[in-house]
Write a structure and sequence with these properties.
It is built from one helix and ten strands; from the N terminus they run αββββββββββ. Helix content is 11%, strand content 65%. By secondary structure, it is mainly β. It has one helix at 4-26, and strands at 30-38, 41-52, 57-74, 77-96, 107-117, 122-135, 140-150, 163-176, 179-191, 196-210. Strands 1, 2, 3, 4, 5, 6, 7, 8, 9 and 10 form a ten-stranded antiparallel sheet that branches. The radius of gyration is 17 Å and the shape is globular. The protein has a single domain (4-210), classed as Porin, CATH 2.40.160.
């Protein structure tokens, strides 16, 4: 039987292999960076990525880090006025801008994560990102999204958290092929049959660059 750590390492190697193969096939992979700031919240991402499909899909392999401080709530009761939550990830993501009859703007991907909180959660695992968007113009997209981190894809099956999640709502403005401006609302928490925990709720603004 494989251990959870062996499974996570295998997923990591698969992500790296996928991005390298994509880079060889497209020849358009560039260094990328993204940052977002909010009240008591910071987000930074660096990696490799680029536009393909005639500039309509941005795919990237990124290392990201989110730090936020907010009230820790369990079952809608405030346990701490200020509690720190951090999430470090290696993610393979894509973000599409198709402006046609459907004007769809799907996005998503997979990521390995390491989450740490002053609340009742600290674990690593594999998560999935899903985004459903609507293009207002050929360069402006609004979207709803979620990061889902189920217990059975994690290294800790005894944390009393069947699901870790982050819910998102945002708008992305594609300024050029190398610059996007972003505004995003994030709400992170955990859920199980016994209790619901709210770790953070924040509004952040930032940009994504492909050099």
């Amino acid at each position: 039987m494989f251990s959870n750590n062996q499974i996570l390492v295998s997923c990591l190697l698969a992500l790296l292999s996928f991005q390298l193969n994509a880079a060889d096939a497209q020849g358009k992979t560039l260094p990328t960076a993204s940052f977002q700031l909010g009240e008591d919240s910071r987000y930074l991402g660096v990696g490799l990525g680029g536009w393909n499909d005639q500039g309509r899909v941005f795919s990237s392999l990124e290392i990201t880090h989110l730090e936020t401080e907010d009230a820790l709530e369990i079952d809608s009761k405030t346990l701490a006025e200020t509690a720190e939550y951090t999430s470090t990830r290696l993610a393979l993501l894509f973000d599409s801008f198709y402006f046609n009859q459907q004007s769809r703007g799907m996005g998503g991907g997979f990521f390995l994560y390491s989450n740490d909180s002053e609340g009742p959660i600290e674990r690593q695992g594999l998560g999935i990102n899903l985004r459903f968007g609507k293009l207002l113009t050929s360069t402006t997209k609004v979207y709803l999204g979620s990061d889902l981190m189920p217990e059975f894809w994690s290294t800790d099956w005894n944390a009393q958290a069947l699901l870790e999640y982050e819910l998102q709502a945002g708008i992305t403005q594609k300024v050029t092929d190398w610059l996007d401006l972003q505004l995003i609302y994030r709400k992170g928490g955990t859920w199980d049959e016994i209790r619901q925990v709210s770790h953070y709720e924040t509004l952040m603004a930032g940009a994504r660059l492909a050099f």
